[in-house]
Specification:
The complex is a heterodimer.
Chain A: E1 13-18, E2 25-29, H1 40-47, H2 51-56, E3 58-61, E4 76-80, H3 86-93, E5 99-103, H4 106-113, H5 123-138, E6 146-150, H6 159-165, E7 171-175, H7 178-187, H8 207-212, H9 215-232, E8 240-243, H10 249-258, H11 265-275, E9 277-278, E10 281-285, H12 297-317
Parallel strand pairs in A: 4-6, 4-7, 5-6, 7-8
Antiparallel strand pairs in A: 1-2, 2-3, 9-10
Chain B: H1 2-15, H2 17-24, H3 31-41, H4 48-67
Helix pairs in contact in B: 1-2
Classes of the chains: A alpha/beta, B mainly alpha.
Chain lengths: 319, 68
């Protein structure tokens, strides 16, 4: 690994954190294109196809983050319950000419997963590294001055810590009618609802119990925990709640003002165009789902047991 | 010898932000030839085979991370 200080990292972007074995390492590359892909991972992958990065990419310890001078306060944080339009929101925000959207960046996920697991890595140190990481992720990106972070669904479970790391930064929680969410997770489960990917204690389960629960029920329990985390941190002024049903218009009417953004007509036009595409596959046109998801009796039952009351509470708080 | 040359070139690139930015903008199809030429100008002995080997190793390592 490079023995680096922050000055030596100007112009480099942290693209990946390796935490598998031994000391965690941070990989850096030069990323030239703006973050317009649905997920940061796609931008990082493309950067690593460039011959320059294949030959000259560098690695540092996580301590290198402690030496970075630049730190950026995000303009807004986006949390979500999964399968609820948050990627659409990220895509729309990315069309603001002054904005960089960090969409579920792996380095942020890796850093959050270290919380409480590394001796000596206090919340204070981790929060400072998270701020430095976000600054480094956003820093070189085509001179865009405003940064939004869209987190993985499970990160809302760390909302109190993240809010302390970014004091005063507005956060939004995006949600959706639970049957549609569960039906989507049933068709193609995301990592966030697979047993073993997050600490089962978040769901009130032991490790053994997490694997014993049927996959659809585990998904319902996980999504319920995401909703609970958002609701329990919903102090006045502490966040805003956005229903999928109000998208994409709610981005213009509610989210941009909430984040203190005034979009130009050109930006609005670009955001409308982005909203016409499939948020996770920019080569496909978005097809609106049926108003009510085709669900099975199992999904109806799981929604009723785990999510309907939470959905009602979220709707009561939404804008 | 040229492995040491590549290591020396890497150290130069990592220490010089402007140089890194300039090299990162070299078109992929010109990359190996340009790097060998620039390395020679800087007194670093680097061959195209070294670059191809380094790139292949990096591609494999990155792909494994992606799969994981």
């Amino acid at each position: 690994m490079d023995p680096l200080d922050g000055a030596g990292l100007n112009g480099w972007t942290p693209v990946h954190v390796r935490t598998g074995t031994g000391t965690p390492a941070l990989d850096w590359a030069i990323v030239e294109r703006p973050y317009l892909d649905p997920f940061f991972e796609q931008t990082a992958y493309a950067a690593m196809q460039r011959p320059f990065n294949q030959v000259f990419a560098r690695s540092t310890s996580l301590e290198a983050l402690d030496t970075l001078r630049a730190s950026v306060a995000p303009a807004g944080l986006v949390f979500h319950m999964s399968r609820c339009g948050s990627t659409l929101i990220a895509q729309m925000l990315s069309r603001l000419t002054s904005a960089s959207v960090l969409s579920e960046p792996q380095p942020v996920d890796a850093l959050l997963r270290l919380r409480g697991r590394v001796p000596g890595l206090t919340d204070e140190i981790l929060a400072a590294r998270l701020r430095a990481l976000v600054g480094a992720l956003a820093g070189p990106n085509a001179g865009r001055s405003r940064v939004f972070v869209k987190f993985h669904a499970w990160h809302v479970l760390e909302l109190p810590f993240i809010a302390r790391a970014f004091p005063g930064v507005p956060w939004a929680f995006v949600f959706r009618e639970p049957r549609a969410v569960l039906a989507s997770q049933n068709r193609a489960p995301g990592a966030e609802v697979l047993a073993g990917t997050i600490d089962p204690a978040y769901l009130g389960l032991s490790a053994q119990a997490a694997y014993a629960v049927a996959p659809d029920e585990y998904a319902a329990r996980a999504v319920a925990a995401f909703c609970d985390a958002a609701l329990s941190n919903a102090a006045p002024g502490g966040g805003a709640f956005f229903d999928y049903a109000g998208l994409p218009g709610g981005v213009f009417a509610e989210l941009l003002p909430f984040f203190g953004v005034t979009a130009t007509e050109g930006e609005k036009s670009a955001m409308h165009a982005a909203a016409q595409l499939d948020a996770k596959d920019q080569e496909s046109t978005f097809r609106a789902p049926a108003a009510r998801a085709n669900t099975t009796a199992l999904i109806d039952d799981l929604a009723a047991r785990f999510l309907d009351a939470r959905y009602a509470a979220l709707r009561a708080r939404s804008r | 010898m040229s492995k040491e040359g590549l290591a020396a070139l890497r150290a130069r690139v990592h220490a010089d932000e402007d140089l890194a930015q300039r090299l990162s903008r070299i078109a992929p199809e010109l990359f190996d030839g340009e790097i060998v030429r620039l390395a020679a100008e800087m007194g670093c002995d680097v061959a195209e085979d070294d670059l191809r080997a380094a790139a292949a190793q990096a591609r494999q390592a990155w792909a494994l991370r992606w799969i994981r």
